[in-house]
Amino acid sequence: MTSILRSIKKHILLSSFIFIVIVAIAIGFGIRKKFVKDLILTDPIKRGSIVESVYGIGTVTATKSYQLKLGITSTIKKLYIKEGDHVEKGQSLVDLDGTGVLTAPFAGIITQLPVKIGETVFAQALILNLTDLVDRYIVVSLEQRAVLHVHQGQHAKISFDSMREKSFEGIVQSVYSSGNNFFVRIGVSHLPPEILPGMTGDIAIAISERKDVLLIPVAAIDVDKVYVKQERIRHKVVQITTGIVDGEFAELASGDIHEGDRLVIPQKGTL
Q1: Within the chain, how many helices (H) and strands (E) appear?
Q2: Pairing relation of β-strands 235-239 and 200-217?
Q3: Spatial distance between the Cα atoms of 248 and 49, rounded to a whole number of angstroms
Q4: CA distance 68 to 130
Q5: Which of 31, 82, 114, 168 has its CA 20 to 30 A from that of 261?
Q6: CATH assignment of 53-62+134-209, given 2.40.30.170, 1.10.510.10, 3.40.50.800, 3.40.630.30?
Q7: Distance separating alpha carbons of residues 152 and 184, to the nearest angstrom
Q8: pLDDT in tens, the chain (271 residues)
Q9: Which fold would CATH assign to domain 40-49+211-265?
């Protein structure tokens, strides 16, 4: 009877041990499956080009703007135009007492007309403003540290809030200072007519470029290291240094990373 009880007890212990092992394997598999599922991987690392830029807010500016002012007091005899009118070069604008009819020096839009017929206009008072809305450029104000890297001939990309689906190309024409401010003039061709002087846009001026380099997604960089996905569950920690960064990618300057590697994007609680 005693031997039978011992045998039963032995089988119970063995069964319990097997059950515990099975449960542990199942839990471990579940944890591994969840861990792998939680990992977010980059696309395979590739070579490519990367551009470093400086950024600023640019203001659209008319190349030609004409303000009519007189050196003497006069009276408005007749107005041939109103605000918003398009005029051609040589078209009559205003007839002034003692001065005669004044004409447009170039084609453009009347953007200001603060006077009325019969009004007396004093010396140096504004009579009208004529602006060429077709010939435009962009002025960007930059900090000293940024403007040191900008020079004539560099390419710029311009975008506007109301037209985010489209960007425009420009060329740096000049870099200059005014007082304690630093400005960059950018020439832009083919701006649509709805982009008016005074509007602002986001400007990115390309200051350097690297070609045929390994590009690391910025999202995969954890301070100065990345996690390279291995065949098994574990990943390899690799120390790196970066060069040019364009916001989405960084140039790999040093580090044991190879073309085709996939990196683990760091997520809280998964690494």
Answers
A1: 2, 20
A2: unpaired
A3: 12
A4: 8
A5: 31
A6: 2.40.30.170
A7: 9
A8: 455 445 545 555 445 555 454 444 444 444 343 344 457 899 999 999 999 999 999 999 999 999 999 999 999 999 999 999 999 999 999 999 989 999 999 999 999 999 999 999 999 999 999 999 999 999 999 999 999 999 999 999 999 988 878 899 999 999 999 999 999 999 998 899 999 999 999 999 999 999 999 999 999 999 999 999 987 767 899 999 999 998 899 999 999 999 999 999 987 655 6
A9: 2.40.420
Q: Which two tokens stand for residue 66?
A: 């004409």
Tally Cβ neighbours within 10 Å of residue 244: 19
Which residue spans within 132-257 are E strands per DSSP?
136-142, 155-159, 167-178, 181-188, 200-217, 225-229, 235-239, 241-245, 249-254
The pair of structure tokens assigned to 109 is 């839009």
Residue labelled with tokens 């040019």:
244
Query: 95 with 77: CB under 8 angstroms?
Result: yes
